[in-house]
Amino acid sequence: MNPRALAAWSISGITISLASGNPVYRVLVLLCALNVLVALRRPDVSLRGMGIALVVAALIAITVTTLASHTGAHAFLALPSGIPVLGGPLTIEAVLFGASTGVGIAAAVLAAAPLSLVLMPNSLVDALPSGLARTGAAIGTALNLIPGIARSATEIRDAQRMRGWRPRRVREWPDLAVPVVLTALEGSITLAEAMEARGYGAGPRTHYADVVWGRADVAVCVVAPAAAIAFVALRVAGVIGDWYPFPDVSLPPVSVAGVACCLALAIPALVWRR
Amino acid sequence: MIRRLMRVALALPLLAVGAGAASSVTRDGPAAPLCVQAASSHRVGLVVEHADGQVVRRCVGFDTPTATALSALQGSGLEVGISSYGGGLGAAICQIDNEPATYPPSCFTGAGSYWVLFVSHAGGAWVTSALGASSVTVANGDDIGFRFDPQTGADPPPPSPAGTCPVLTPPPAATPTPAVRASPRPNATSTPSAVTSTSRPATPPPTSRPTAGVLGLVTPGATRASAGSLSPGSARPGVNLGILLAAIGAGALVGLLGTQALRRRRQ
């Protein structure tokens, strides 16, 4: 698969999921993105961690909206009004609005996830325009350092504990923080030397293999952005509207054209194979 | 696990359609008028102008020397949706007479219309209120106006409140009456068209309709059905088709998801 075509699909998915507050469209985008991830993710990648994170994010959205928004016709609990911000009736409408927000967050994150869970980092950097190649390489390298620092911190913490380190105050945490920072600096210098030894920055970026555009790549690159553009145009024209459950919960208005735009995002799962 | 997923995929469209059909008959009816103050000694005229130009007039009575614009509005019997900010910040008027049909929890949308509040003291001209409806106080003879207006551009005032509260006829001294009533009440029981009228006459004919808690009222267009209502009568054509297509599409996507998971597992 072509990384640029996948990037175009991701941008289209994010656009549709954020263009409307209608949960029906968001759920469809979420399902399309899940299909792409399950069908095309790298064999060494697990979706479990991201799934848990998205569920937690959705629950936070529901909780915050329910506690902070006290409008709606169907109250199921009332907190004492003396409690600042949180006091007042808790309504089913607020729960549903929070769920819609959570689904929107999950859909947007899942639409962006294939860039890291399907593609290799070097493929993503290769897909960048030549003007952004250095910036992309720097950002990619910096992001790759984060898991290394986390591993280093775990190892150093275990080593300090074996030496009898039992932190009780904040003042004792530098015993862990200082070695972690020094190790990270040492790793960065080693990485910079390795990149320089391989000729990084000596000339324009070269590629291990040429990126080929197949029919499936072209189809994805045309259909997904077209669907996003059509969705935004329908949104501007008023055919696709937002959905608010206040003051009384109602069924979201759904446009056939809007549904078609969302379903078009499933195309990578149909035409690409890993 | 995969087989279970496939079963869910097949059942999802049926469940979605069933849920839509079930929810279409669970809509709550409109709230009853809140204020019963037929013997009120103070009155305030209320003029509400919708976005389509439809004007609703009410005369609201109260016994205290002053009242807030919000309490007068709530006492008019019109449907009102508010969002309370707490902490002495008062409340915002989100919805009057089912306009807008829905609104976000923060009450105001980024670029939509909102209810602009006008006040007329003792028969004077409309003045845009600098305070919210829960902070503005009105007294006997004052008028309050609400106009659903875009956030951009000027805020033209609603129609004149003149005649909203009819002149009271003092009761004869010898025969005490338990309640003060408005004297002109023609056609008090024969205005069925006012219930669903959406016409926009240039000069609204003064037709009266009896409503509990309101002394005298002129309602060329009465309370309208909510556009976002789930009731079968307000369902717009095409909505069900969209939901049906979305349910089928969601079911197909879940089925495809199961197939993909099965294929990856075999690999």
Explain this structure.
The complex is a heterodimer of chains A (274) and B (267). With 274 residues, chain A is mainly alpha-helical. Chain A has one domain (3-271). In chain A, 65% of the residues lie in helices and 3% in strands. Chain A contains eleven helices and two strands. Chain A has helices spanning 3-19, 23-40, 48-68, 92-112, 114-117, 121-127, 133-162, 174-197, 215-237, 256-263, 267-271; strands spanning 75-79, 88-91. In chain A, strands 1-2 form a two-stranded antiparallel sheet. In chain A, helix 1 (3-19) runs parallel beside helix 9 (215-237) and helix 7 (133-162) packs antiparallel against helix 8. The longest helix of chain A is centred in the middle third of the chain and has 30 residues, at 133-162. Chain B is of the alpha+beta class and 267 residues long. Chain B folds into two domains: 2-27 and 230-266, no CATH class; 42-169 and 177-218, Ferric Hydroxamate Uptake Protein, Chain A, domain 1 (Beta Complex). Chain B is built from three helices and ten strands. In chain B, strand 1 (42-49) and strand 2 (55-62) form a beta hairpin. In chain B, helix 1 packs antiparallel against helix 3 (239-266). The longest helix of chain B has 28 residues, at 239-266. Chain B is elongated, with a radius of gyration of 25 Å. Mean pLDDT of chain B is 67; it is low at 8-38 and 174-239. Chains A and B meet through helix 2 and helix 10 of A and strand 4 and helix 3 of B.
